[in-house]
Amino acid sequence: MMTCGGLGQAQPVNEDIHDLVKQVKSQLATHAPGHENQDLEPISFRSQIVNGVNYFIKCKSGDQHVHLKVHKPLPHTQEGPTLTGVQTGKSDQDEVAFF
């Protein structure tokens, strides 16, 4: 069970997470130049309920892994997801954590 503000357990990705990564991929140019041209394969994710949902997503990018922090606002705002942070240079052994 996840509490509001707490970070949930790691989960396997689903189609919604794949779509979320596609929606924010172009924003990588600002946070991690060069990665926007790489294929991103979501591996796992954790979520945090805030004023919307923060997703912490582990992705394979070329021969390394990156961790994405994506904020998805509440539906009534009619705003799309925003990439709010990126951690590069990660390995397949690194767990996704709050950042």
Automatic annotation (TrEMBL):
Cystatin domain boundaries: 5-90
Entry's family note: Belongs to the cystatin family.
Keywords, comma-separated and alphabetical: Cytoplasm, Protease inhibitor, Thiol protease inhibitor
Transmembrane regions listed in the UniProt entry: none
Biased composition (Polar residues): 79-90
Pfam families reported for this sequence: Cystatin
Keyword Transmembrane helix: no
Annotated stretches, region: Disordered: 74-99
Keyword set includes Cytoplasm: yes
UniProt name for this protein: Cystatin domain-containing protein
Single GO MF descriptor: cysteine-type endopeptidase inhibitor activity
Superkingdom per UniProt: Eukaryota
Location relative to the cell: Cytoplasm
